[in-house]
Automatic annotation (TrEMBL), chain A:
Compartments (UniProt record): Cell membrane
Ranges of residues in domain G-protein coupled receptors family 1 profile: 45-293
Protein name (database record): G-protein coupled receptors family 1 profile domain-containing protein
Keyword Signal: no
Topology term for the membrane: Multi-pass membrane protein
Family matches, as InterPro entries: GPCR_Rhodpsn (IPR000276), GPCR_Rhodpsn_7TM (IPR017452), Melcrt_ACTH_rcpt (IPR001671)
Organism: Characodon lateralis
Automatic annotation (TrEMBL), chain B:
Family as reported in the entry's similarity comment: Belongs to the MRAP family.
Localization, UniProt: Cell membrane; Endoplasmic reticulum membrane
Protein name per UniProt: Melanocortin 2 receptor accessory protein 2
InterPro entries, A to Z: MRAP (IPR028111)
UniProt entry keywords in alphabetical sequence: Cell membrane, Endoplasmic reticulum, Membrane, Transmembrane, Transmembrane helix
Organism whose genome encodes this protein: Characodon lateralis
Taxonomic placement: Eukaryota, Metazoa, Chordata, Craniata, Vertebrata
Membrane topology (UniProt): Single-pass membrane protein
A Pfam short name: MRAP
Membrane-spanning parts: 41-65
Length: 317, 227
């Protein structure tokens, strides 16, 4: 319930609201429709990914399982956020009693789910990065290292850990501890993923040059051009991957840090007034995640096309 | 943990009435906005500017990694090979021992040096191709199809791991032949199961460099067939 207490997380207003100072930082309000739209679209996308991976047998490989897990966590996050916003709207309209026992319980449940989905999506990113690392650097032993059984074990561990952590966090620990834990986890996962991808990128570039040098073959100019172009594309892809992650998650985390560090400072207050924008950014990460990870895979797109445009399930197997 | 304070003066301007307090968030002393030296949104602006700088810096670092030289200097032998596309097969076979000495590692070493593995396998693949030119092309193609499907899966995995457009080129140029030969030679059962997951022709990006190798190998096959 602490995480959903928009009042405390949002900005604190000055006491005389009748005379609004020019120096006051008004809270930026995002219309409910925006939340709702983002939530519904991200729910649809991620659910599509989950269903596609589960239904289609040829997507039962470790890579796709991790993406499915990521999409499942994003689904949970978008459902929870949308539901929460719906409840707030209903509460504002007076249909729900805010302090009733069922509402607080529901609030607790939603907070647990949010914590769970946050930790889960970060763990899934980490798992995907490690899987890609193994794919590249231990390519031939990949099928021995990353069997489906081990994938199942890893996913089970991730889900159990997230569930336990979520329940513990919401029930037993105080806000400051949660903030510190989340921030540390965020920074660690960001650093690890960053390191893994940049290492992969560098090694791949070096190897590409050397292999191309070995193959040679009188196509120097065009080959150099093509390689430079593809390297640029690789750099752009990596930037998008990290940029989206950082841009979507960092504002919210800075918000949490600011609450802990400088609750009374007017500058911090002005930052906190943008809370709803930061929440929308966070939700939109669940929206763009499938676009960056799942939809870029040809196999998955192929499966989607079969699923969406086929008239009958039996015909399209 | 949850105390309720009736912040009536704030309720009318707020969307939500949820009020939960924690000890260090003092409600009785509101934030005063008087006497601000800098702009009130300075933290916000500073944060976003910092974030933008970070992302752009990351992009430039990555492109710089792209442009600056590789640690391995090219062999003069390799450089010479480049000018003889027709005799390339022979040259590679000729230099095979050198390369193996320079770069060879045990095949299933699992060493992080991907490059070493590729070089030795590349040579073996080419050697096989030359020695077994009587081998049926159908079998090659089937094997390549199966291998390609497996490689496709890996390619997709790798393509999406960010900076692997170069690795696509790498894989397409070397693995298609080399690993197919390797796989069929070592008869790894796992790779055979994925033939139904083949997405050949699905994605141009993956196939653009591979067409070149396909053409080259066809040229080599034609070349061998003329003997």
């Amino acid at each position: 319930h602490l995480l959903t207490s928009y009042s405390t997380l949002k900005s604190k207003r000055t006491i005389n609201t009748t005379a609004m100072n020019q120096t006051d930082c008004p809270e930026v309000k995002v219309p409910f429709l925006v939340f709702f739209t983002v939530g519904i679209i991200s729910l649809a996308e991620n659910l599509l990914v989950v269903v596609a991976v589960i239904r289609s047998r040829n997507l039962h490989s470790p890579m796709y399982c991790f993406m499915c897990s990521l999409a499942a966590f994003n689904t949970i996050a978008s459902v929870t956020k949308t539901w929460e916003n719906l409840m707030i709207v209903l509460a504002d309209a007076g249909h729900l009693e805010k302090r009733g026992p069922s509402e607080t319980d529901l609030d607790d449940v939603m907070d647990s789910l949010l914590c769970m989905s946050f930790v889960g999506s970060k763990s899934s990113f980490l798992a995907i990065a490690v899987d890609r690392y193994i794919t590249i650097f231990h390519a031939l032993r990949y099928h021995n290292i990353m069997t489906m059984k081990r994938t199942g074990v890893i996913l089970g561990l991730i889900w159990t850990l997230c569930a336990v952590l979520a329940v513990l966090m919401v029930k037993f620990f105080d806000f400051k501890f949660i903030v510190i834990c989340f921030t540390v986890f965020f920074i660690i996962s960001l650093a690890t993923i960053c390191f893994l991808y940049i290492y992969m990128f560098m090694m791949a570039r070096i190897h590409a040059r050397n292999i191309a040098a070995l193959l040679g073959g009188g196509r120097d100019r065009s080959q150099h051009q093509r390689r430079w172009g593809s390297n640029m594309r690789g750099a752009l892809t990596l930037t998008i991957l990290f940029g989206a992650f950082v841009v979507c998650w960092a504002p919210f985390f800075v918000h949490l840090i600011i609450i802990v560090v400088c609750p009374m400072n007017p500058y911090c207050e002005c930052y906190r007034s943008l809370f709803e924008l930061h929440v929308v950014l966070m939700m939109s990460h669940a929206l763009i995640d499938p676009a960056i990870y799942a939809f870029r895979m040809a196999e998955l797109r192929h499966t989607f096309r079969k699923m969406l445009f086929c008239s009958g399930w039996k015909l399209c197997l | 943990m949850s105390d309720f304070h009736n912040r009536s003066q704030l309720v009318s301007t707020r969307r939500s009435d949820y009020v939960w307090q924690y000890e260090y968030y003092d409600d009785e002393e509101p934030v005063s906005f008087d006497g601000l030296k800098a702009h009130r949104y300075s933290i916000v602006i500073g944060f976003w500017v910092g974030l933008a700088v970070f992302v752009i810096f990351m992009f430039f670092v990555l492109t710089l990694l792209t442009k600056t030289g590789a640690p391995h200097q090219e062999n003069p032998d390799l450089a010479e090979k480049r000018h003889r596309p027709e005799g390339r097969l022979v040259d590679i076979n000729g230099h095979q021992e050198e390369n193996e000495k320079a770069f060879s590692r045990p095949l299933l070493d699992g060493s992080p040096s991907y490059f070493n593995f590729y070089i030795s396998e590349e040579d073996q693949a080419h050697k096989k191709r030359k020695l077994e030119d009587k081998r049926s092309s159908t079998k090659d193609k089937v094997g390549r199809h199966l291998c390609s499907s497996e490689i496709e899966e890996m390619h997709e995995d790798i393509e999406e791991s960010g900076g692997h457009q170069p690795l696509n080129g790498l894989i397409e140029e070397s693995k298609t032949d080399r690993e197919c030969a390797f796989l069929s030679h070592f008869n790894i059962p796992n790779f055979v199961n994925l033939d139904h997951s083949s997405t050949l022709g699905e994605d141009d990006l993956l196939y653009e460099p591979s067409m070149i190798l396909e053409r080259q190998s066809q040229a080599h096959n034609a070349h061998c067939d003329t003997y």
